[in-house]
Amino acid sequence: MPPVKPMLAKSVAKIPAGMLYEAKWDGFRAVIHRDGAQTVIGSRTGKPLTRYFPEVVTQLEAQLPQRCVVDGEIILVRHDHLDFDALTERIHPADSRVRLLAEQTPASFVAFDLLALDERSLMAEPQRDRRAALEEVFAAVAPPLYLAPATLDAAEAQRWFEQFEGAGLDGVIAKPLDAVYAPDQRVMFKIKHERTADCVVAGYREHKSGPIVGSLLLGLYDDTGRLQHVGVCASFPMKRRAELVEELAPLRMAPGDGHPWAEWADEEAQASSRMPGATSRWTGTKDLSWVPLRPERVIEVAYDHMQGDRFRHTTQFRRWRPDREPAGCTYGQLDEPVRYDLAQILGSA
């Protein structure tokens, strides 16, 4: 019965040998519970996503067995590429907007594990047996439902790691063949890309525990010379967070001093440029205020991949770069993955 928290993965540097390998999808993790006319889509945290994806629910009820629990990912495909930004727009409080977006930007579901079928729980079964049962259940499904491709060949998994990023995927997942399904436990392994970039530090948000640095706000200059907010760096121990407040104090700016993101609260400015503080349906009433800094310091961060013109995930601190000029921190330094057709991964789009 819902909620069931999904099994998780821990990061490793290389693809381990002797496992079941799948691509790492960049969407919303979803555990599907179907019991006849009742369907619940549970998120990674256990909260239901059901109301936001009515078109997915319709397909699940049309194609899945009457009673089952399936682990997978809700994705959104646009132009043969995963589009996470468009997927996040599907989380909307207004039912009329939800229905409209379901027609305009319909989502899909990719299945990669089977937790229960009919009256039987499969969670204590080994991964190899759950995969075999999943393949049988999904043998006849049609888009927008998909069975996640899987392989036992580590060399093929390495090819996936190198190629699939061009379709918006996020790396490779390795699953021990004998592993049982362990909710909320990091039993699997994830292998993700890591690159570095030099960014301008243009502000920071305070930590939830008090007036210390929670995250540094990062910027890159676009082709027009405008500084765009591209993400955050937040990987600091508590002692270092306090030290950063002192170090960055000389760079603090007052409102109206000409900061490149001074219009962050203006909706029109947010529409034409990426700035911190934009309203998020995920954070709700969370305080998104920040401390502006003169954009004079450069930091090198590690990141996995880009989502459009920003870092997809929180970056990791590598080092300060006093030898770099902020003006040289442009999008031109970023590695562009070779485009790859998502339809070749899913079989059809």
TrEMBL record:
EC code: 6.5.1.1
Domain ATP-dependent DNA ligase family profile: 100-222
Pfam families found in the cross-reference section: DNA_ligase_A_C, DNA_ligase_A_M
Keywords annotated in UniProt: Ligase
Domain of life: Bacteria
Catalytic reaction list: ATP + (deoxyribonucleotide)n-3'-hydroxyl + 5'-phospho-(deoxyribonucleotide)m = (deoxyribonucleotide)n+m + AMP + diphosphate
Enzyme type, top EC level: ligase
InterPro entries in the cross-refs: Adenylation_LigC-like, ATP-dep_DNA_ligase, DNA_ligase_ATP-dep_C, DNA_ligase_ATP-dep_cent, DNA_ligase_ATP-dep_CS, NA-bd_OB-fold, OBF_LigC-like
Secretion signal, residue range per the UniProt entry: none
Biological processes per GO annotation: DNA recombination; DNA repair
GO molecular function, a single term: DNA ligase (ATP) activity
Cell inner membrane among keywords: no
Protein family (similarity comment): Belongs to the ATP-dependent DNA ligase family.
NCBIfam families: PRK08224.1
Protein name: DNA ligase (ATP)
Organism whose genome encodes this protein: Streptacidiphilus jiangxiensis
